[in-house]
Amino acid sequence: MITSVLVANRGEIASRIFRTCRRRGLGTVAVFSDADAGSPHVQEADAGVRLPGASPADTYLRGDLIIEAARRAGADAIHPGYGFLSENAGFAQAVLDAGLTWIGPSPSAIAAMGSKVSAKSLMASAGVPVLPGLDPASIAAADLPVLVKASAGGGGRGMRVVSDLSELSDAVAAASREAASAFGDPTVFCERYLPAGHHVEVQILADGHGTIWALGERECSLQRRHQKVIEEAPSPLVERLGRDLRKRLLAAGRDAAAAVDYVGAGTVEFLATADGDFWFLEMNTRLQVEHPVTECVTGVDLVALQLDVASGRPLTGPEPEMTGHAIEARLYAESPLDDWRPQTGTVAAFEISGSQGRYPGAGYREELPLLRVDAGVEAGTVVGPHYDAMLAKVISYAATRDEAARSLAAALRRARLHGVTTNRDLLAGSLLHPSFLDGTADTSFYTAHPPATLIHSPDPGLFALVAAVSDAAAGRGPLLPGVTSGFRNIPVGHRRRTYAVGDHPIDVRYRFTRDGLDAPDHPSATLVRADADTVVLDVDGVRRRWTVGRFADRVVVDGPDGSVELRVVPRFADPSAQVAAGALVAPMPGTVVRVGVAVGETVTAGQPLVWLEAMKMEHAVRAPGEGTVGEIPVTLGQQVGQGTTLVVVEDD
Length: 652
Prior knowledge:
Elements: E1 4-7, H1 11-23, E2 27-33, H2 40-44, E3 47-51, H3 63-73, E4 77-79, H4 89-97, E5 101-102, H5 107-114, H6 116-125, E6 133-134, E7 146-150, E8 159-162, H7 168-183, E9 188-192, E10 198-206, E11 212-224, E12 227-233, H8 236-241, H9 243-259, E13 264-272, E14 278-284, H10 291-298, H11 302-310, E15 325-332, E16 334-335, E17 341-342, E18 345-346, E19 349-351, E20 370-375, E21 382-383, E22 390-398, H12 401-414, E23 416-418, H13 424-431, H14 434-437, H15 445-448, H16 451-454, H17 460-476, E24 495-501, E25 504-513, E26 516-518, E27 525-530, E28 534-539, E29 542-551, E30 554-559, E31 562-568, E32 583-585, E33 590-595, E34 602-603, E35 608-614, E36 617-622, E37 627-631, E38 639-640, E39 645-650
Parallel strand pairs: 1-2, 1-4, 2-3, 4-5
Antiparallel strand pairs: 6-9, 7-8, 7-9, 10-11, 10-13, 11-12, 12-15, 13-14, 15-22, 16-17, 18-21, 19-23, 20-22, 24-25, 24-31, 25-26, 27-28, 28-29, 29-30, 30-31, 32-39, 33-35, 33-38, 34-37, 35-36, 37-39
């Protein structure tokens, strides 16, 4: 009998598992690295055990430390969550050998599916359609394009698309390095790459008494860097093509589970074409990030069922079927407009209107549309370079797909997310794009529709005016009833404030007169009211409200048509903040894993010079133009902070 559960993971998945455990009356134990000491999942647990260090290799990938933590805290079961050691057969066996309950499939099933190479062979023997693997050494031009893929792990790490044979060896080496760092296994393989397809997966749940459930399918076709961004259930492709495709997919999912005597929750992933053909990709022997959409449409709590199965209980009743539609958006700390570059920083505000922590249960499906937020951060959380960049998952559930998409987009637009750049605006734009709304979007969506075409950019000048008016109200406040801040009884010139969006300065001119606000660059704007947190303007006869937040040297203005983060430009520049001309600096904290040039070497625009590893992925820093390398002040393996000069390119 399980009485206390240690979650060998972090962030939103640990918090989500803890909630079900609390509803079941079970004790909860968190483990945490030094970087996660203040994480919400640690505060939510009944007990927490420190794993000294910050890197995954020193903390969440140390199975021996995690098992010892369970012993020390009195936990009698371990739930692996997803990522880290969740698909490590050796760790699962060590948990069992320690006399603890493993809330997951058997070590043999994990091992069978842990290598994508051997898993494909096993699935082919079971009658599940597969794409044949390719030996990197024998790939010819006729085989292109191909996908280089890590044999272990998932989440888009250790994957590269190769369209030119000359790029193959570098792609294999880079994918192997990334796979070794993320999963501890450098093995990679190649397979035919289908640039446009549909990523469809089947949620499996099996008990130890011979029952295998296929709880419907999900579609996860919107991806960047081979990582999922938006997921939904049921699949719009399957809905369009009919029940026969669903029947074949669910049967293939059950066959895959039966082939390895699977017990527990798992996901069988397929790549499907627009006409309904599909091939096995991999089986994830764990809970998936996107499991909430299946919970919404089936009304079951997958974590609760995992606990039941691990306790030896059988699955009872009919196999759950899907009703309604659910969509999940992954909120990442990243900049889509900057090649999806991960971002770091401190979360200054995190407010998303929704039913935080609501899970299947009494009345769950009667209140539609439903918005669910599974978050791993809160105001004050530090987002560092050590782990995945996902902050939260926002899930909508409604009677129809269109309603689910529109309610989710509206919730994202209304959210207040300050302190760290996120993909919020991209998510909202994606959800409302015609090809997504009509259900035809496939894995080429972001190739066909780059972020710049999806992100609505509101007028930064108007938002800067709102910031200036709010700053004036915050600094001076009302002088007398009915008299606004900045009022003078004699004519004076306009006040000036300078903000910046990225590297682009915005000068704001304004003053308060007897007639109210005078803003020469926005003559149709009339001030209705303003304070430090809220500004209401009448613009061209339409009254709108903006909220204002501040942190460090930033002002964030959230309005009905979007959000803009403004940097306050000081009147006088600090000389110590300047960098050498031609210096390329680290865009985030990370580790230098490769230096591709030498001092004195001539480089061309776009040429990669230095590679950083951050958030478990490699990021290339490229030359902005032609020139000569004048200085390389970093070395291989060096840890660097954001803004550190990596290389200086002198313009010839």
